[in-house]
TrEMBL record:
Protein name: RecB family exonuclease
UniProt source species: Phytohabitans kaempferiae
Entry GO MF terms: exonuclease activity
Gene3D superfamilies: 3.90.320.10
UniProt KW Hydrolase keyword: yes
Transmembrane segments: none
Amino acid sequence: MPERLFVCTPSKLGSYVDCPRRYRYSYVDRPTPPKGPPWAHNSLGASVHTALRNWFALPVDKRRPEALPSLLKGTWVREGYRDEVQERAAYRRALEWLESYVETLDPAVEPLGVERVVAVKTAVLAFNGRADRIDSRPGPDGPELAIVDYKTGRTGLDSDDARGSQALALYAYAAERVFRRPCRRVELHHLPSGTVAAHEHTPESLARQVSRAEDTARDIAAAERAVAEGGDPDTAFPTTPGPICTWCDFRKVCPAGAEAPAKEPWATVERVLTPTAADE
Ligand code: SF4
């Protein structure tokens, strides 16, 4: 019998690479173990992403900075903040980011896709993922595509981050096949700093990322098979404790997570809002 394709998204693969135990808690154990409280930085990121999606849903003549406050209010996610004072400060900061960001956009240029799902099959994977934005831009031999990913974290990003992102590479690989146009450029748009970190892939570098994703999928399938055949789930999906444990949703149920320092759900947002004081 041919082996079944491994159905995956970038976050599913990334979860296993970060920590096999976290993957198990998220995708294997049922019922899913209880998660910790929602993180304010996730709320902030989701609010900004949805506001930008809705910006592109506006008619071109309505894509003006004055539209942003109601777009952001309409998509605002309230969970995780310390209190209303912090939440209001985060809203104001997010609005500033959006105002600066849309100044860099030509409202008349329509992206090819906004929060667009692209899917592709390889010999091992049935991949699907939702790209923040897919642009069509003029190239030397006709239109070329670029994958755009919005970032709202505290720290800036550089071209190594864009080059190393497996998610961006998989989106590019899939978009090229879905739209039948070259898609080699991947970009991280960091709204807090207004910077763009970009990388131009080659067919070879995209193939390498796909091959790595396939290796991860094989490892996951082997671990799942071991459990299905009666193996110890804790051995098949080991913990990999490290700094990520502090931010892991399963810190409280994971034996290794108990060792990690706890952070309040709003800790990252606090640092985003007062970077200098927090760094002292
Ligand atoms: S707490 Fe750490 S070791 Fe445990 S699942 Fe989360 S990331 Fe993995």
